[in-house]
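Hey forum,

I'm writing up a methods section and want to include a predicted complex as supplementary material. The small molecule is zinc ion. I've pasted the protein sequence and the SMILES. Can someone with a working setup run it? I'll credit the forum in the acknowledgements.
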Amino acid sequence: MNRQQFLLGFLTIPFYKHFLHETSDELLVLTGKKSPVLHNGLQFSASKAFAAMKKEAHASGIHLHIASAYRSYFRQLSIWNGKYERYRNQGLKGLELIHKINEFSAIPGTSRHHWGTDADVLDLAAMQPKNPLFAPHYVNSGGVYNKLYDWMSKNAPRFDFYETYTKDLTRTGFQFEPWHYSYLPIATEYLAKYNKNISLVNILSPELKGKDLLDEPYFRRYLQKYINGINTKLL
Ligand SMILES: [Zn+2]
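Reply by user p_vandermeer:
Happy to help. Structure tokens for the complex are below, copy them as they are.
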């Protein structure tokens, strides 16, 4: 490596460290098996943008709060396996059971919460309901998070945060989630890398319940319908 290459490489590290370089690391970060560098559950630039948004929301009487941001593969695995058991006990089986879990929950290794770019938000200034992540709280007038939802709809894009699982009826995949936002500058980059590099083999683990129902053709269709079934601004 000559001196100029060394300097260019050296200088770019701090500015581009949220982008992925090494292939093996890349696969692990994209699937939540390795954490990116995080601040408050988000990557640094996303966390900084979120803090600025939070400050502005506060001036409007909204206490913007992250209910859930980064989630590891193993955390998602425990959510997945818990729902698998619950729905199996209710009599569901086969792909019907998988589709039921997929209404709101991703297969471990495929959640955007693995990336440090996405957050579920609520408003701590409101009276807290028992089940916060419930769409009517956000979209119904008089809902406890309706003020938050209106504010976010108008203002979040100025901070590069976009609603991911919109109400758009032409969108496929996960149900409408008015609490879930993505930080566009990193998240679009990650999705492109995900689509290019991840196969079923990267997300499997011996502990994954229902894994025998999944094969590569199913996984390709799932990626199209669910992982790419998002707000088109984030594609
Ligand atoms: Zn979420």
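Some notes you might quote in the supplement: Residues 117 and 164 are 11 Å apart (CA to CA). The two ends are 36 Å apart (CA to CA).
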